Amino acid sequence: MGLKELRMKRGLTQRELAQRSGVHHVEIAQIETGKRNVRAVSLDTALRLCDALRVRNPRKLLDPDSDSSAD
Questions:
Q1: CB 58 within 8 A of CB 50
Q2: Which of helix, strand or coil describes residue 13?
Q3: Burial letters for 32-48: b for 16+ Cβ neighbours within 10 Å, e otherwise?
Q4: Separation CA 31–CA 42 (nearest Å)
Q5: For a disulfide at 20, which of 3, 29, 40, 52, Cβ 3.0-4.6 Å?
């Protein structure tokens, strides 16, 4: 499940996720659209997104091909 799917599952807009995580909404949009590879984001950014999305395992965010639940 990728970032967009996780964000939408939580009912958040990109701007709401940006406010919760401290990651700029433009960076979130770039990750979601593939303009920026999610595997290339810093560990700090990944952890902040995971915290904001209540994802315990950062691999859920970093591995968009993962079929397992994000909870």
A1: yes
A2: coil
A3: beeeeebeebeeebbeb
A4: 12
A5: 52
- Say which amino acid occupies 64: P
Strands (E), the chain: none
8 A C-beta contact, residue 62 and residue 2: no
Task: Judge whether 3 and 38 are in contact, CB under 8 Å.
Answer: yes
Token representation of residue 11? 């009912």
**Distance between CA atoms of residues 39 and 7, nearest Å:** 17
Judge whether 5 and 12 are in contact, CB under 8 Å.
no
pTM for the structure as a whole: 0.82
pLDDT, averaged per 10 consecutive residues of the chain (71 residues), comes to 91 98 97 89 92 88 55 44
